[in-house]
Structure formats: structure tokens, C-alpha cells
């Protein structure tokens, strides 16, 4: 494949160890990437006084493709969420969270294959209208849904379904109560769905969607929804396949994309070489798919499947005793044997 430079943010806590695992796997798969390493989060704050230094933003702007470990935003110190800031700065309007069953994870379900597509820049996470009264008795925030934003994410979901040969898109909403915001989202969904007659559209209220995901997850294929609902549902979906350690995420805009582990930085196990790197390895597979290198991504996913199913070199969260390094080496060995 063509040599390409990608921006890498190793992140905080366990981030450096799991991101290094992912780049080692990418190298072993023959990707030939050049990595431009930049800082974000607590590491950047310590070295530069900023959570997102200008040099980091410039590197993302320059390379347009990013592999990112978990970043920590200090709580209660006036800092805005780093992830939200990145999404808004680069207009990464689509959050894509696939979950896929891997034998050997001891998850509650088998044969799960669901993609959650979440609007990433509007809704309750837009940051608009956040006010707390002087006496700390009343707090307010605005949820803003635009027709343009709704149509953009809905079309993204239906195009993804068409491209991947999926047959159903479930639009999750709360239009029975939130008649303005969810109502607009649902009306636009019906308009967009009419342009994709080969794909079945299901309308589902969010609370019922949560129940159905627990009771009969096999009925879901692609889910598309607004920001807050998507944040909650995508974590629920991760629980179906073994937890956040098995769940990658992509944030995609018109000409820029960030691929990441979706879990936190887990500072309690940082530098202990015991973290499961699967989430960020799978995120690197999403990155390869984005660059139209699906064959390489498929080889890496197959290697992961082999190692996890065998159970000899899995990390503690998967029921094994292997270190991050041992797990990564086993994946690389499976790649070379394929």
C-alpha cells in the first residue's frame, strides 16, 4: 500500500501501551505507515500547559487521519472535554461504533454484529445554553438539532449500510416526548429512508431500544441516532460483546477522521503492561477500512479472533493472564501464520 503519514496521539494512562501495541500490529501487517507523534490530554498539559496544543491541531490538519489513545480531561477544573473539542474543531460529525462478537470473550451473546452511528456535534453535547443559576438551584442546557445536521448523519448511516450490504437501519428517537428535536430528526429520517428503498428502516423509541438490545440484540444491524442517545446506546452495545475493551470508535468528518479506543485511560493500571489493546487495534482496522485497505483490516481482525478464541495469550479482562506485550506478540504471530 502507498506510504502515508498518520498522526498518533498515544494518550494518557494505559494509552501509550495500547497504542504502541496497535502500531506494532499495523507494522507487522505491512502497512508501512509513517507516524507523526503528538501530545494531548494530561501529558500535553504537563509539557505545554494546554490539553490540545496548537502543534497537535496542526498535525491533525496536515495528515487528516489520526490514531488516538484515551485522553483524560481534568474534572472540575474548567476544562472542556478534549474529545468534544476535537469533534467540533474538525467537524467530525459521525461517530461510528461497531461491535462484533469474538469467541473466547465470555460475553453473554454470540453472533453480535451491530454498528451504531451517532451524530457527533449537535444535540445535548453541543455545549449551547449551559447556565447554572447564581444560587446553584437551577441548571439549564439547550439541545439543538438542525435539519442539515440530521440529514447529514442519517445519509451517512444509510450510505454505510448500502456500502456494507446491510439490510436494516434502526432510527432511535424520543419523538413521542421530545416532539421538537427528536421529532425533526425522525421526520428527516423518513425523508432520507425513502431514497434507499432496498434498506428497511425501523423506528424505535430509545427506551424500547435499550430493552430490545438486551432481550433480542440479533434484530439490530445499523443503529442511527442523536448524540446523547448514541453515547449511551453504543456503550450498551459494547457490553453485549465483552465490554469497552472490545469496542473501537471512529469520528469521521468530510475530510478528516480520528480512530480511537472508546474506554478511559485507566490510570490505576497504567505502566503495568496488563491492559487489553483490542479496542485500539480494532480502531486501527477502522482506520484501514477508511483508507480503503479492507483486506489488511480483515487479516488483523482474523488474527485477533484466532488469539482470543485460543485463550492462551489473553489479558485478564478476557479471562487470561497474558501481558499487553504477550497478547500483542501473539496477534503478530497469528498474522504471520495466516
TrEMBL record:
Taxonomic lineage from the root: Bacteria, Pseudomonadati, Pseudomonadota, Gammaproteobacteria, Cellvibrionales
PANTHER family according to UniProt: DECARBOXYLATING DEHYDROGENASES-ISOCITRATE, ISOPROPYLMALATE, TARTRATE, ISOCITRATE DEHYDROGENASE [NAD] SUBUNIT ALPHA, MITOCHONDRIAL
Protein name listed in UniProt: Isocitrate dehydrogenase (NAD)
Entry keyword annotation includes Oxidoreductase: yes
Family per record: Belongs to the isocitrate and isopropylmalate dehydrogenases family.
Enzyme category, top tier: oxidoreductase
EC numbers for this chain: 1.1.1.41
Species this chain originates from: Pseudohaliea rubra DSM 19751
Entry keyword set: Oxidoreductase
PROSITE patterns: IDH_IMDH
GO MF entries: isocitrate dehydrogenase (NAD+) activity; magnesium ion binding; NAD binding
Taxonomic superkingdom: Bacteria
Record domain Isopropylmalate dehydrogenase-like: where: 5-331
First and last residue of the signal peptide: none
Gene3D superfamilies reported for this sequence: Isopropylmalate Dehydrogenase
Gene Ontology BP term (one): isocitrate metabolic process
Pfam annotation, one family: Iso_dh
Keyword Oxidoreductase: yes
NCBIfam families, per database record: PRK08997.1 (NF006529)
